[in-house]
Amino acid sequence: MPTRHIILSILTVLAFNILGQNLESRSTDVKIQRLLFLIEQMYVEEVDENKLQSDLVLGMYNYLRPMALYQPDSIFETLGITPSEKTSLGFTIKFKKGKILVDSVFKGSGAEISNIKKNDQVLEINNNNLKEFYYYSEFNKVLCGEKNSKCEVKLVRDKDTLKLDVVRKKIPNSSIIPIPNNNSNLKNTIHNYFQGIEFFDLMYPDSVDNSLITEHAIRYMLEQLDPHSTYISLKDIHDMNAPLKGSFTGVGIRFQIFKDTILIVQAIPGGPSEKVGLMAGDKIIKIKNELVAGNGIKNKGVRDRLLGAKGTKVKIGVVRGTNKEILDFEIIRDKIPIYSVDASYMVNDNTGYIKLNNFSSTSINEIKTAVFKLQSKGMENLVLDLQNNGGGYLKTAVDLSDEILPGYRKIVSTKGRKFPEKTYAGNKTGLLEKGKVIILVNESSASASEIVSGAIQDWDRGLIVGRRTFGKGLVQKPIQLPDGTQVRITTSKYYTPSGRCIQKPYNKGSMAYRKEKYSRYKSGESFNKDSIKNNKNEEFSTLLKNRIVYGGGGIVPDYFVPLDTTGTSDYFSKLIRKGIFNQFALYWVNKNRASLEKKYTNFEKYKKDFNSKSITTELINFAKKEGVEFNKPQFEDSKKTIEIRLKANIAQDLFDYKRFYEIINELNAPLQKSLEILKDNKGFYNLAN
Q1: Could you tell me the sign of the dihedral formed by the alpha carbons of 526, 527, 529, 533, in that order?
Q2: What would the DSSP string read from start to end of 433-445?
């Protein structure tokens, strides 16, 4: 090729790359400008734009791998940025499995002089406990300080705990990146997005993707606002919205991977797989002529191959029973429903039970269908199980409350800095206005679950049974950004009919906020109602019986049911964590499917006659092969729980996943307590614990 053609080709490629980078840069710039405008216009509280910009820079900084600390002075000179006047202890770190490890040590630094080495585990710096540090920027605050200042560094090396005195020293020809860790003094720091993206582009010319580093900047910035304002990438939008919309497109199977083999647990009734004849127990060997058995495929890999646009086709090959021949099926992908009602059945002669896993667009229709069936079987009272229900659509929560509350009733109201108060009320005749209602909740019941629980409690319509709910009283509005990604910005707080906002504090940061529900175990609240610390400044009265209720930290139940730890053991916990129950049940049902289906022609017969005691030895041996050693004393402690759990897992594989709850609910302590309460008319209407 002539020289001029080579030069022309190189120039064309360079021009294309520069044009591409400029287009990407403009795209991310517009995205940030739009987002900052939306936050200023919509966020529930006043915002400090300087802090928003600083947090964007910190978000980018935290994304960089490995940790960035020093840069050559020449970079600062090129960009006209003044480097930080602070000096560092002279090492960088990495986060690994909950530990903070030394990643690199700078030559000539205080760390090198004090003999800090790569892979040392850092525990403390000047008595600062580092367990709650999750970002490089947090660590940067304790790592950096005044020149020649001394720190005591506590670390672990080869199982020995060491305490070393380390001096912060200047590194020749290099300086610390001036990130804005001290938001009150932004002078001489990189304190806005546009400075940051230019600086990090120059620092990491080959590894920084503008769109990706911008996404990390946005995620971190939103997290500093509150724990519920979130960013959703294009990749995540479909997966997050599918459960709320109540459907996705695919082939319509429930599957598990067992011993590197994809086993069909259920062909969803009415779905495309059932229509072509796929059956529970079939082993998927090929997808689109690609071998998928015995090659370590994961759940995501299966989903990626089976999900697709409606009307598209996918070929799969399965092995059925003991026949080694591969049966080929061509499946046309279609809309597959996602059900929010996990189970509905009669728990006694006049009481129905419904378990709802989220508040989706299809939930009300699902609940109505369940209620009609239960009422035809004699249901007078309802136990609605919202344990572990993290919420969903506000409208669905309002509609469900309206089904339960008689006459015109205020259900919830929302109010924000830029949004006037909006009241949601119900006035239609609902299916559940008569009879006793009990709602089951726990520390993972949140948002829409709390709206329903709060409305029913405030109007003294029913009883809340269980443990204090999560405490989410913030409302998010989904907004699409110019590139199709999405943010959910907190725009309002919601208030129950009595006027309480049940949002718990989040001033200690998102990580502490999310961990709060787990801290209830240590504080004793999970076991004793008296350990609940009600906010006396958030005291309200219910609207009919003037009972005292509290805001500022979730819904406190009318009847407290402690976390039940009887019947458990470390051995049982290992069986759960390692997925032994699911794996063994699937293996055992598949091995004995023909005889089981012949013996237990319907679920009622199975529930009455099947006894899992006879196969616990098989379970124990199976678990041993999977690395869970048998512990007889612990097995005896949890024997009943193991037998019930095993029976429930077999039921879901032999019949339907919803049947799992009909068995396992024998261990559902709040449900069992509810059945006791319902027997006592006086106790129920007394509505006081």
Answers
A1: negative
A2: SSS-EEEEE-TT-
C-alpha distances out from residue 207 to 62, 202, 233, Å: 14, 10, 20
* Structure tokens belonging to residue 185: 């003094």
Give the phi and the psi of residue 657 in degrees, each rounded to 5.
Answer: -60, -25
Q: What token pair was written down for 175?
A: 């300086």
Could you tell me if 630 and 623 are in contact, meaning their C-beta atoms sit under 8 angstroms apart? yes
Q: What is the pLDDT of residues 376-386, one digit of tens each?
A: 999 999 999 99
Q: Which of 180-189, 260-269, 300-309, 419-428 has the lowest mean pLDDT?
A: 180-189
DSSP-assigned states of every residue in 382-439 = EEEE-TT---B-HHHHHHHHHHHS-SSEEEEEEE-SSS--EEEEE-SPPTTSSS-EEE
* Structure tokens that stand for 131 in this block: 């367990």
**110: which 2 tokens?**
């205080």
Whether the Cβ atoms of residue 71 and residue 174 lie closer than 8 Å to each other: yes
CB 336 within 8 Å of CB 342: no
Distance CA(546)–CA(566), nearest Å, equals 36
How far apart, in whole angstroms, are the C-alpha atoms of residue 496 and residue 554?
A: 11
502-531 confidence digits (pLDDT tens): 999 999 888 889 889 989 999 999 999 999
Alpha carbons 687 and 437: distance in angstroms, whole number: 12
SS3 call for 633:
helix
Residue closest to 587 by CA, chosen among 613, 611, 621: 621
Q: What is the token pair recorded at 78?
A: 């090129």
Annotated active-site positions, please?
Answer: 447, 458, 472
Cα 478 from Cα 219, distance rounded (Å):
15
Q: How far is CA 460 from CA 132, 300, 488, 686, in A?
A: 41, 45, 33, 10
The CA dihedral of 307, 311, 312, 318, to the nearest 10 degrees, is 70
